[in-house]
Amino acid sequence: MKMFWGNKIKTNLERRIVVPSLVIIIVTVLGCMLVPEKANAYLSGMKNYIFNEFSWVYILSVAFFLIFLVILSVGTLGDIRLGDDDEEPEFSFFSWVAMLFAAGMGIGLMYFGVAEPILHYAVPLHSSATPAIQEQEAMMNTLFHWGIHAWAIYGIIALSLAYFGFRYRLPLTIRSGFYPILKKDINGFWGDLIDIIALCATIFGLTTTLGYGALQLNAGLQSVTGYHDTSFTPIAVLIVIAVTMAIISAISGVGKGIRLLSQGNLIIAGILMLFVLFTGPTVYVLSAFSQNIGYYLSHLVELSFRTFAYDTTHKDWFTSWTIVYWAWWISWAPFVGLFIAKISRGRTVREFVMCVLVVPTVFNILWMTIFGNSAIWLDGHHGGVLSVLAGQTEQMLFQFLQLLPWPLLTSILALVIIAIFFITSADSGIFVINSIASYGKTKFPRWQSILWGGLMALLAIVLLYSGGLAALQTMNIVMALPFALIMIILSFCLLKGMIVDNSYFSRDLTKGTSYWTGEHWQERLGTIVATMDRNELLRFMDTTVRSAFTEIEKELTQYDITALVRENLKDDTPYIELVIKKETLRDFVYGVTCVEKAISRLVVDNPSFPTVDTPHTLEPICYFSDGRRGHSVKYMRKEELITDVLRQYERYVKMASDVHHSLYLYDKE
């Protein structure tokens, strides 16, 4: 419990972040609501200026993000784990990938899977080309916009936050990525400012998504039911229902609510995709899938750096498609990146990069091929029935399904998929907003989820009704340029932190002594064959660990070095640690705590292991000044533990003497 806005309410919101953010949001929304035309005109002018003068910045930035991640993953830095060195992933691979889709592009694939290929084909980039080339270019441009570059943008933010959050034990917020530059000042003004910008951008982006997502759902319902209501009421009701369900899911917890919805919806979407494949022009689509991959990969470098500098006649197409997409992905990066970081703990950097870049990209290519190529084929065989809907993109998917068997059933299925993607995006957004607003916390009082969900729904309804949503969307795109520059800085901060991490923790220990010479082997054998319960663990820490640390502490006083032994053996996670104080550097800490480890039932039930009779054991694990767990000290006697402490301290002293490692040893408190 703590005081918040003068009342004693259970909350973990940070007033320094929330209050300025709410002021900015209210002022901006009032401007978009009261004078939407003026606001939109002003923001559109800014957008056009940025797009005309700085389009090359977007192109180079996004290309840089992709190249940076690939290089990062193929080197030794790719072995670094986002968490402790022995930590297992929190979610299964299938659950992880499913949540990536739900948070990132799920609803966009439903909306643009048919619409974008048809729009590119109906208004081709090169009108003089043959229909076959126009179709191929339409698919290539679609895949380019929904391919690996979009996930590189998300990946930069997600990897930066996951790395500094899980390796450096910093809060899971945008500010943490600036630790190599700001160090302990991330807790001050600049850190607050970064999180305020991130919070506002996230709320603005989610609000516009709620508004336009509701329009799409409304169009789908009207297409399915045949009932056309031109009033605003159905849209407002859809927003309220969707956000209410998102709040319920958010309250149930990210590990339960989003995971179950995401897994179920991915399966349903897969069923719809296979239905379209096998009831449409199957052989043609499968052949197109192979050719689309080859055409996309063979033109990837050219597309990555394409600015139409020598072809000004296509500048409008370039800015209204590619640049808008890049700006939109960048503006969504804080939201999607924070969520991906939260669900990616325990993955290695290489696994993270390869999966985040490759798996969703392959799926997107498959999805866009099945829906896009099928739509173009059916459009050509039905007199351009889809091309005429170029101004009504929200209806294209449902019109497309009318050209296949069982249109009513598949349209209802599509509506369910869109609704669940809509809900899971809002659900993920509520979690991310809570995390930013509470300085990286991961558990929140229920009323906070209700507050943020209700605020987004209210803003979406008010702005949609007043006509100010377009202005808010434009402002969100304008904000993408400075945020792209921030992401570049984050990339170099990430690289610096990982280089120091790899150098510090891969340095070989001095080989002056060995841990075990073979003495007291009977005692060691007894430790190997038995499990350790809490009483045995406490006995080990009380005798061996405390005795070793006390002797070292006493010896250090002869060298005028301040050291102390801290302990808490009554806590659920007991610990004892030796702290050697340093004035300007991070204190040297060698601690021992307990970790519960599961034992396979094959071992517990096996009579060949008569001393193992429980499915869990406790193990004393050492940890260091950054909070990272090290190795087990279960088999060490007092003298061996003293040796290990001194070897770690020797490495610390050598590293402190090396100016290249000042970042890791700098006191972050």
Give a written overview of the molecule:
- With 669 residues, the chain is an alpha+beta fold.
- It has two domains: 17-197 and 265-406 and 465-504, no CATH class; 507-665, no CATH class.
- The protein has helices at residues 15-34, 36-74, 93-104, 106-122, 131-145, 148-166, 179-182, 189-225, 233-252, 254-279, 282-298, 300-304, 315-343, 349-381, 396-401, 407-437, 446-466, 469-478, 480-506, 521-529, 534-556, 601-604, 638-656, 662-665, and strands at 2-4, 7-9, 563-568, 575-580, 588-598, 616-623, 629-632.
- The strands form two sheets. A five-stranded antiparallel β-sheet has the order 3-4-5-6-7.
- A hairpin with a 5-residue loop joins β6 and β7.
Find the count of extended strands (DSSP E, 2+ residues): 7
Proportion of residues in β-strands:
5-15%
Strand order of the largest sheet: 3-4-5-6-7
SS element count, helices? 24
Q: Supply the helix-strand structural class.
A: alpha+beta
Radius of gyration: 28 Å
Q: What global shape is seen?
A: elongated
Distance between the termini: 24 Å
**Share of helix among residues?**
55-70%
